[in-house]
């Protein structure tokens, strides 16, 4: 099944691989920018993945050749974070290995050839899939006994400390656990993960992720401003995260919040309270098999993200508003049915749409006529998270 990647491994390393591993991309189904405030999320692993052919090398080095990129080599004797590596694939490999070592586990050297269908900028979290993939490989090769939640936390640590991106934990958790999961981050060290048994294939809708054509370059400040401004609201109440702030007290002291943190920060806090509660309502709707209610909540989340969280149009951008245009076009093509919302971090990248199957061909054609061929991906939910796919026979 994975003959091509095994052949690429053999061509790169002049020997055969021993294993093939896979980690999926993810889609956020509910809870937009709630995880970093100890909130709730709803997420799913999707049917595109990052795959690695792997073999132990008996050396104190991890070598990873990603298709189309330079070879990365990490010496296991040097696993400290380096600012010079911020933003690089090398930093993620070093970060995952370094964190697993710091937790008291042995990490041995291996060679890997990696190929990914979770493309950078696709909104499906290619970085989380890669982190989970590396964690899953080490966990299997060295018998660390880590569970899916721990592998996700290790991936987040690597991205925060080694890669230099202050992400939450949703992406890694969805990729690592698999299926549809709701996650409550009230206790950051021990998040509560609940798998949901809902068959999206039978709901009469396709899950589409649409690339707006805008990339994430130069948007670091936009992303960083969201947790920063939410933090400014928290300081009014002497708290570290919005989950710890009483919502009634927030509204009672709204004039004070506006004076201390500003109106955008106050609106972003309003979004958090509403979207955090909305996740519970989405979970209840799926458990009750009430897909119409679920779609209504998806649309509500999308409106809240646009109006309150304000992560659709980058600050001051007038000529380029690709994400906003994509949302407007998708809404028109859906003809008042299905649902559409900003997907993931926002400002650029992708939107998410639930499209009635009878509208799917027209929806896909209409989006791609404006945004380009291949911009609309039709996906399904994948039941497995990070996993060993195959042990190659010698």
Please tag this protein with its features.
eight-stranded mixed sheet; 394 residues; 12 helices
Helix content: 40-55%
Beta-strand portion reads 15-25%
Mean pLDDT: 94
Any idea what the radius of gyration is? 21 Å
Which structural class matches the secondary elements?
A: alpha+beta
Distance between the termini: 16 Å
Largest sheet: 8 strands, mixed
Instruction: Give the count of helical stretches.
Output: 12
Unreliable runs: none
What is the number of strand segments?
12
State the order of secondary-structure elements, H for helix, E for strand: HEEEEHEHHHEEEHHHHHHEEHEE
The general outline is globular
Description:
- The chain is of the alpha+beta class and 394 residues long.
- It is 42% helix and 21% strand.
- The chain contains 12 helices and 12 strands.
- It has helices spanning 3-13, 89-102, 126-141, 148-163, 170-177, 220-236, 247-252, 254-261, 263-287, 291-309, 322-334, 360-371; strands at residues 19-30, 40-56, 61-66, 71-75, 110-116, 180-184, 192-196, 205-211, 339-342, 350-356, 376-379, 387-391.
- The strands form 2 sheets. Strands 1, 2, 3, 4, 5, 6, 7 and 12 form an 8-stranded mixed beta sheet that branches. A 4-stranded antiparallel beta sheet has the order 9-10-8-11.
- A hairpin with a 7-residue loop joins β9 (339-342) and β10.
- α4 runs antiparallel to α5 (170-177), α6 (220-236) packs across α9 and α9 (263-287) runs antiparallel to α10.
Précis, in short:
By secondary structure, the protein is α+β, with helices and mostly antiparallel strands. The protein contains twelve helices and twelve strands. Strands 1, 2, 3, 4, 5, 6, 7 and 12 form an eight-stranded mixed beta sheet that branches.
């Amino acid at each position: 099944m994975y003959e091509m990647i095994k052949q690429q491994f053999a061509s790169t390393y002049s020997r055969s691989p021993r294993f093939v591993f896979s980690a999926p991309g993810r889609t956020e189904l509910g809870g937009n920018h709630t995880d970093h405030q100890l909130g709730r999320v709803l997420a799913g692993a999707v049917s595109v993945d990052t795959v690695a052919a792997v073999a132990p090398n008996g050396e104190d080095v991890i070598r990873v050749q990603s298709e189309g990129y330079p070879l990365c080599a990490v010496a296991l004797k040097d696993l400290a974070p380096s600012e010079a590596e911020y933003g690089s694939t090398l930093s993620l490999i070093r970060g995952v290995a370094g964190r697993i070592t710091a937790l008291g586990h042995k990490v041995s050297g291996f060679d890997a050839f990696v190929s990914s269908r979770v493309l950078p900028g696709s909104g499906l979290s290619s970085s989380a899939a890669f982190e989970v993939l590396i964690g899953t490989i080490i966990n299997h090769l060295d018998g660390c006994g880590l569970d899916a939640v721990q592998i996700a936390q290790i991936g987040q640590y690597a991205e925060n400390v080694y890669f230099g991106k202050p992400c939450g934990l949703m992406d890694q958790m969805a990729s690592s656990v698999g299926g549809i999961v709701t996650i409550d981050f009230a206790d950051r060290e021990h998040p509560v993960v609940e798998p949901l048994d809902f068959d999206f294939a039978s709901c009469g809708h396709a899950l589409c992720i649409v690339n707006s054509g805008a990339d994430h370059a130069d948007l670091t400040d936009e992303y960083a401003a969201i947790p920063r401004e939410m933090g400014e609201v928290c300081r009014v109440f002497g708290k570290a995260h919005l989950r710890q702030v009483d919502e009634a007290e927030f509204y009672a002291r709204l004039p004070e919040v506006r004076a201390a943190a500003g109106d955008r920060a106050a609106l972003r806090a309003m979004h958090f309270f509403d979207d955090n509660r909305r996740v519970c309502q989405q979970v209840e709707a799926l458990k009750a098999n009430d897909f119409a209610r679920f779609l209504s909540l998806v649309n509500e989340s999308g409106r809240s993200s646009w109006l309150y969280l304000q992560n659709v149009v980058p600050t001051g951008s007038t000529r380029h508003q690709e994400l906003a245009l994509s949302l407007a076009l998708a809404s028109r093509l859906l003809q008042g049915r299905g649902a559409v919302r900003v997907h993931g971090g926002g400002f650029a990248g992708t939107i998410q749409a639930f499209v009635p199957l009878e509208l799917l061909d027209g929806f896909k054609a209409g989006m791609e006529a404006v945004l380009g061929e291949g911009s609309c991906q039709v996906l399904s939910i994948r039941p497995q998270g990070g996993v060993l796919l195959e042990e190659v026979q010698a």
